[in-house]
Gamma-glutamyl phosphate reductase
Amino acid sequence: MQIDDIAAYMAHVGAAARAASTAMAAASTASKDRALRALAARLRSSADALAIANACDIAAAESAGLAAPMVDRLRLTPKVIETVAEGCEQIAAMPDPIGEITGVKRRPSGISVGQMRVPLGVFGMIYESRPNVTIEAASLAVKSGNACILRGGSEALHSNLALWALVQAALADAGLPPDAVQLVQTTDRAAVGRLITMPERVDVIIPRGGKGLIERISAEARVPVIKHLDGNCHVYVDAEVDLDLAVKVTDNAKTQKYSPCNAAESLLVHAAQAAAFLPRIGAVFAAKGVEVRGCERTRTLLPQAVAATEADWATEYLAPVISVKVVDSLDEAIAHVNRWGSHHTDAILTTNHPNAMRFLREVDSASVMVNTSTRFADGFEYGLGAEIGISTDKFHARGPVGLEGLTSMKWVVLGQGEIRQ
Amino acid sequence: MQIDDIAAYMAHVGAAARAASTAMAAASTASKDRALRALAARLRSSADALAIANACDIAAAESAGLAAPMVDRLRLTPKVIETVAEGCEQIAAMPDPIGEITGVKRRPSGISVGQMRVPLGVFGMIYESRPNVTIEAASLAVKSGNACILRGGSEALHSNLALWALVQAALADAGLPPDAVQLVQTTDRAAVGRLITMPERVDVIIPRGGKGLIERISAEARVPVIKHLDGNCHVYVDAEVDLDLAVKVTDNAKTQKYSPCNAAESLLVHAAQAAAFLPRIGAVFAAKGVEVRGCERTRTLLPQAVAATEADWATEYLAPVISVKVVDSLDEAIAHVNRWGSHHTDAILTTNHPNAMRFLREVDSASVMVNTSTRFADGFEYGLGAEIGISTDKFHARGPVGLEGLTSMKWVVLGQGEIRQ
């Protein structure tokens, strides 16, 4: 779609979302769930229309020479469509977070004071060329009673437009305002600049994508951003430890999958266990082709290790590489994690209870773990039912963010004519 | 204090606070409470030193021709000192918010997942020339396990320096790092500009003061801000209502005190009650000298009312003035509050249960009330024990903010060697 005045267009999109957000906030659980099930049905019955739109994006991407893995992410295969349809049904089956009233207490003045969970209003989602995210974001918006404005990658525009038409039809099926889910219909990047600087229309921005993109959005946004930049996650093997457990968990944290943000990137080992532990985990890493970048003491125990530089302590490799450091104390380990980590997810492996508790308290990360793999830092593994994103900020939502991250608690006060003296 | 390089000075202040925040986060409840009680004792035993410092500020303010009410706010009278000392003791007596672990649940994978309440880290407080706020902010920081950087009004600098010395001594008394509470020792406004743009040193900014100051800080800050700009609070008198209750509560909401942000500024009356209610409340307002700015229908019932303009619907008077509008439905009342209000505190007066519930759900304000006075929107009245500020934002803390607003919930995961499949 050719749009000449991006500012006016985005103001229009924002106003439509804001207007629809009022009806969404007041929508019944039944109608929201009906919209989600209607969306699932429409996805399944629209395979042909989706395939045509998707083919258009794929052809353009291939002729533009897009790398094969990027083209693969674009594909709306029957399997991808079934997965997002099932996702809609799962979200429909979850409890409604909206309307919950908690902690109502009678005060000495006679009033009763509690809190009610309500939607934030309008969220903006900025993401890359994975059309399935369009449905995920729309379904989270519907369930949480928010409106949303979606800005997907430009390579997926035709697919996103086709999916968006299904979302709007499903909202109408359930008597909800189709405007509640908006899709930015231009690939002009100026639209993103407007989206993140409209506090009167948009309450929060959720970016997904590369670190550079997210840093730029965070720097320029005039509304809160739910984001994580890095997952430089640590495993610390304490002085008292079950070595078999330590080998198994460290292996899993690093090698079960290299690309997720919750994979371990750095291993700290207490000096008392270095000679026993490092050769064992070193053999695992060698067998799996994981490069070790170690401190000097690590290198005396693991000849295959190359010398780590300071930059290694701060690096999220997302690859078969790990930095390894021998430390002399729990204090040194905690200080290292807080200094070099990214406040995402860090684990201690120990049999010592006070050490476990100190690590939990003092490591300043969104998820802190004892005797288990950092790979568990995930909304589904935590039981949130759905994951909107992961936050490494401390304000509002922290760590894996579920539907509640798209809500706020307002105060409700019930009286019988009480007045302030 | 003459400081030439503000950027370097603020970086130093921020680094000291950040370094101290680690020890504060790990501090025991006993040592934090010991520091608070030591501070109360030092305040009481330092009356002479405080009087000398305060006299210096008062003399400068008077010779600069500061208005008398402003000079009064500056005064550290024995009563003010006793009040803040008691405040420290009250905060010491409150439960420690830090370390609470909630919602631990076993997951199918075998891990147990819950959340632990921890400090945010470092907050910056920017306030006007009320030296008592220095002690309030410092004591909230100590109890919540945060470090803080205080930037009080320049007219109170000598008083604040004297109070700060007591805070640092009290921290030392309890074995806590004196650097945990920092006071900006320059009146150069560039220091504020630095304070609000150091995300690596400061996690959140809490400004107190005029709307212009808070708007400027919000626009320029590179960290989250806990704030409210306006308290344009509404009372809506529904079609079904106890008229005696409505007169009593409306009177209290408007006239009990004119200056607080939770005082009512606008009155909406359902048409079905206008003829019965408006003359009664009009007589109350006339007797108390409250000016009424009304819509046309209001003016036919209240001859004393002047004509309201559109600007009146958006105005927080903080004075004996109220805008009054007759509405034809609950929908119109809710739409008016959401359109013109400031999302602070709004009340419905009604005997109709469905209408009460709709108002609670659909009015998008930090506090929504039924049959009671907006004046109750207050941290102490809500039972928070202490109030850091009031937030009209929806992100993180909303409404009256207690110690919990200075904390975040991180995830704790307890395992026994579980790995991700």
Q: What stands out?
A: The radius of gyration of chain A is 24 Å.
